[in-house]
Amino acid sequence: MEVSVLNIKGQETGKKVVLNDAIFGIEPNDHVIYLAVNQYLAAQRQGTHKSKERSEITGSTRKLIRQKGGGGARRGDIKSPVLRGGGRVFGPRPRDYWFKLNKKVKTLARKSALSYKAQQNAIVVVEDFDFAAPKTKEAAEMLNNLKVAGKKVLILLSEVKKNVNLSTRNIQRVEVMTASALNTYKVMNANVLVVTENALKLIDETLNK
């Protein structure tokens, strides 16, 4: 699949790049996309939830009523889970929600996500660029020129560029990241991918290992 390379003014440069069919032209696998997205979201969870169980509640251990003959259920001390203010039964404890996925599964998920974007013509390839200074106005003009303003945009760069990050951080629904940090969730969450030429080469190298 051939795509024209644009500059940040939205004009064609006369150059074309070929999107690798092994990455952008495969039959997407929905299940591996689900697994990769699920893993990403699970890893974002803090897992710091905690509630006190019976042994952690402060209170007397005196038995409230005798074991038998009261006509009701058996009851221990005031920390019993069946009483107001008692401990919680099997309450949440701090834990790590991250789970392992094989490298091949994660790679296939990224390829599948990129293939979906290619099918939707939602990939814009631009020349490598940088801003001379942090200017939100320049970043907004670039998005208007590329006709992606107002959409969820993921800009993929080959390396960290501070001025690009600072120029786009105040624009809603726009995110900048390096191609080496690309993950399935970010691709699927975006409406449009704006990819620089060198970032595209880096994606080829990374996913074709």
Task: Throw out a few tags for this protein.
2 domains, alpha/beta, Ribosomal Protein L4, Chain: A, six-stranded mixed β-sheet, 6 strands, 209 residues, elongated
Lay out the secondary structure.
Elements: E1 2-6, E2 12-18, H1 21-24, H2 30-44, H3 103-119, E3 123-126, H4 136-145, E4 153-157, H5 162-168, E5 174-178, H6 184-189, E6 192-196, H7 197-207
Describe what you observe in this structure.
The protein folds into two domains: 2-46 and 101-207, Ribosomal protein L4/L1 (Ribosomal Protein L4, Chain: A, 3-Layer(aba) Sandwich), CATH 3.40.1370.10; 51-91, no CATH class. α5 (162-168) links the parallel β4 and β5. 22% of the residues are buried. The protein is of the alpha/beta class and 209 residues long. It is built from seven helices and six strands, in the order ββαααβαβαβαβα. It has helices at residues 21-24, 30-44, 103-119, 136-145, 162-168, 184-189, 197-207, and strands spanning 2-6, 12-18, 123-126, 153-157, 174-178, 192-196. 33% of the residues lie in helices and 15% in strands. The two termini are 21 Å apart. Strands 2-1-3-6-4-5 form a six-stranded mixed sheet. The model has no long low-confidence stretch (mean pLDDT 94).
